[in-house]
Amino acid sequence: MRENLSHEDAYLDSLLDQLVRVEPTLAWDDVVDLARRMRRTRGSLVGAKRPRLLALVLLAAIVALVGLAFTAGRAEHSQAGGQHHRVGHGPTISLSGYHMRLPAGYQLTRDQACPRAGTALGQPMTVLQSWKAAASASGGCLRLEFVAGTSVVPSGASSVQVGSTTGYVTSSSASPVTLYVVVPSLGSDHYLVLIATGLSPARLIAVAASAFPS
Amino acid sequence: MVDELEALYRQRLGAYTRAAAAIAGDEESGRDAVQEAFAKAVCKRGRFRGEGLLEAWVLRIVVNSARDARRSRARRLELPPPIALRAEELGLPLEILTERQREVLFLHYYADLDYATIAHALAISPGTVGAILSTARQTLRKALTEEVAR
Questions:
Q1: Which class for A184: exposed (0-12), middle (13-18), buried (19 or more C-beta within 10 A)?
Q2: B120 CA to chain A: closest CA distance, Å?
Q3: Contact residues on chain A for B136, CB-CB shorter than 8 A
Q4: Residue range B65-79, pLDDT digits in tens
Q5: N or C: which end of chain A has fewer CB within 10 A?
Q6: CB contacts, 8 Å: A8 with chain B
Q7: Cα separation of A131 and A27, whole Å?
Q8: Does the model's pTM come out above 0.90?
Q9: Residue A187: closest CA among A158, A156, A165, A214
Q10: What is the DSSP letter of B44?
Q11: Are A136 and A105 in contact (CB under 8 A)?
């Protein structure tokens, strides 16, 4: 009996071993950089013991900055017709007035190596605006296109919620992962298409959802 | 304190990432959860009072970040997490375990942590960790044996 249990334990461990295959690639500098941005974003001065007067002055400055940012954000929004919701930690990729926050480590690029919607899928579509792309040092790549067509979305794609709008994502095992986001103001034939390598479907949806807050 | 966090990060990154990925449901979210957790630990280091192990304090933040990632994913995406799909392919019936059982199993197996550290991270007693782990493994062993017998 004990021998059997031992064998079963070893089998269970071997399954657990195969279950999660992940190579940690993050550098400590990225963590410190993210911590700095968290502090700035949240205006957090945790642990800092400053005089009350200085704290009040800082608070007033933060309130003024937030007010300015809010006003500027509203003006930009009304001009562009898009929306902005920061969920990532990287730069913003913008197309057709929609602004998406990228994950940390991504930089905007004009590199044409990122897969294209047209060539990747072979679907008939009209590209409405020049593409934008971003890449990470670890080989991740994201391309954003604005397309129109009646049969843009492949039949195998799954319907998902992308913030306040709808999207269709290709299988999680497919590479690259492609997400078709319906542009709410233009109807179901117009899509923002995100094609990514090195990002999970969930992360890709989070990036897209930052432009369509619920 | 930041130096100690950096040392912990360098020493335990692989183990934490695997455990966080298992809890979050996919590898990318696991990586992000660990990065975010350590960044939070750097920001909030003033709150660590030294009453327990630094590792246990950080681990609690890692677990919370991984849970948030899993819930966030579930809200946005109808597809099952990639790791759940892989478990299904492997014939590992993780779905028969409770969420708490899975977390204890993942932290013990992937992060290779002792009961006391897991207990602190999950805010339960070390004895409870042992009992949960034993039940979880027994449940999976039984299910695997029945599957083989069929």
A1: middle
A2: 23
A3: none
A4: 999 988 887 887 777
A5: N
A6: 141, 144-145
A7: 30
A8: no
A9: A165
A10: T
A11: yes
